[in-house]
């Protein structure tokens, strides 16, 4: 991921320059993931995909813990985790592309191409144009970091997702924390709890005590 602009210029160099200008608030720094964007990306995934992502990237669960939560063998849990991570990257790319649909032409084009870009599928000529904008635009770089480091984005926004709030209810219910877990025997029942109830079964939210770690 380099272009020639007075010598080699990379994603890492671009991020370093942005962090020097906006210390503590630059793309990829702790506390900068947008919880609304993260929620929207997670809401586009199925229950089990959300669950394995939360377990691995927030709770730092090992393969056996994830397998037990899903009721599957460890190798199957690994396969599902890889699939969930691919789905999350794609969902982040879609969320950012939709959000930028009415932005400036360069921002809209860049964010619409992020899914291809992180997979190295943008032709060299178009990649050069994309990178010339990306390396100088903090908001597009922020979107790129979400797509490339999607697990980090979920982890960084985890506290805000657990806390909830009016702005975070709009995208639909998501799994966050152990309250979203279900054993194999429980699968026919819906275990998603959300501020607005479960979109799958229509059940309404359950009240959670202050010590609970709710789904949001």
Write the layout of secondary structure elements.
Elements: E1 2-4, E2 8-10, H1 11-21, H2 35-43, H3 47-57, H4 63-70, H5 74-99, H6 105-112, H7 114-118, H8 124-134, H9 138-148, H10 150-163
Antiparallel strand pairs: 1-2
Overview of this protein structure:
It comes from Xylanimonas allomyrinae. This protein is mostly helical and 216 residues long. The chain has one domain (2-171). The chain has ten helices and two strands. Strand 1 (2-4) and strand 2 (8-10) form a beta hairpin. It is globular. The two termini are 36 Å apart. Mean pLDDT is 78; it is low at 1-8, 166-172 and 182-216.
Question: What is the CA-atom radius of gyration, in angstroms?
Answer: 19 Å
Supply the number of helical segments. 10
Assign an overall shape: globular
Q: Give the strand order of the largest sheet, numbering strands 1, 2, ... along the chain.
A: 1-2
- The proportion of residues forming helix, as a percent range, comes to 40-55%
Record field, number of beta strands: 2
Note the main sheet: 2 strands, antiparallel
List the quaternary state of the chains.
Answer: single chain
Sequence of secondary-structure elements: EEHHHHHHHHHH
Q: Kindly give the count of domains.
A: 1
* Average pLDDT taken over every residue: 78
Structural class: mainly alpha
Low-confidence stretches: 1-8, 166-172, 182-216
> Distance between termini?
36 Å
Pfam families: zf-HC2
Protein name: Putative zinc-finger domain-containing protein
Domain Putative zinc-finger: 107-140
């Amino acid at each position: 991921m380099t272009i020639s602009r007075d010598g080699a210029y990379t994603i890492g160099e671009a991020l370093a320059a942005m962090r020097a200008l906006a210390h503590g608030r630059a793309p990829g720094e702790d506390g900068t993931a947008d919880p609304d964007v993260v929620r929207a990306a997670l809401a586009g995934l199925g229950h089990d995909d959300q669950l394995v992502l939360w377990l691995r990237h927030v709770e730092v669960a090992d393969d056996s813990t994830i397998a037990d939560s899903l009721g599957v063998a460890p190798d199957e849990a690994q396969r599902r985790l890889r699939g969930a991570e691919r789905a999350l990257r794609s969902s982040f790319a879609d969320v950012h592309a939709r959000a930028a649909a009415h932005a400036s032409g360069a921002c809209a084009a860049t964010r619409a191409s992020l899914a291809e870009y992180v997979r190295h599928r943008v032709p060299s000529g178009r990649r050069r144009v994309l990178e010339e904008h990306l390396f100088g635009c903090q908001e597009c770089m922020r979107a790129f970091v979400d797509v490339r480091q999607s697990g980090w984005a979920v982890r960084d926004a985890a506290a805000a997702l657990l806390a909830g709030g009016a702005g975070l209810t709009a995208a639909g219910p998501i799994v966050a924390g152990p309250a979203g877990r279900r054993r194999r025997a429980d699968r026919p029942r819906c275990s998603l709890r959300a501020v607005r109830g479960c979109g799958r079964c229509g059940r309404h939210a359950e009240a959670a005590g202050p010590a609970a770690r709710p789904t949001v």
